[in-house]
Amino acid sequence: MDKSFEENYKKIEELLEKLEENKENLDESIKIYEQANSLYDKLKSQLAEYQAKIEVIGSNE
């Protein structure tokens, strides 16, 4: 099951904090960045879905 927007947003915040703290290991930083980037794509997709729903609701009024 997909996580909610809020859960994904919280996770990306956690990953960005880890990325800021991780100054020693470049390989680990790259893995964290890839995870955050993937979540960012999911967040953009979720926002696009919400926007489409809002437009449908707005056009029905």
From TrEMBL:
<keyword id="KW-0269">Exonuclease</keyword>
<dbReference type="InterPro" id="IPR003761">
    <property type="entry name" value="Exonuc_VII_S"/>
</dbReference>
<keyword id="KW-0540">Nuclease</keyword>
<dbReference type="GO" id="GO:0008855">
    <property type="term" value="F:exodeoxyribonuclease VII activity"/>
</dbReference>
<comment type="similarity">
    <text>Belongs to the XseB family.</text>
</comment>
<protein>
    <recommendedName>
        <fullName>Exodeoxyribonuclease VII small subunit</fullName>
        <ecNumber>3.1.11.6</ecNumber>
    </recommendedName>
</protein>
<feature type="coiled-coil region">
    <location>
        <begin position="2"/>
        <end position="60"/>
    </location>
</feature>
<keyword id="KW-0963">Cytoplasm</keyword>
<keyword id="KW-0378">Hydrolase</keyword>
<dbReference type="Pfam" id="PF02609">
    <property type="entry name" value="Exonuc_VII_S"/>
</dbReference>
<keyword id="KW-0175">Coiled coil</keyword>
<dbReference type="InterPro" id="IPR037004">
    <property type="entry name" value="Exonuc_VII_ssu_sf"/>
</dbReference>
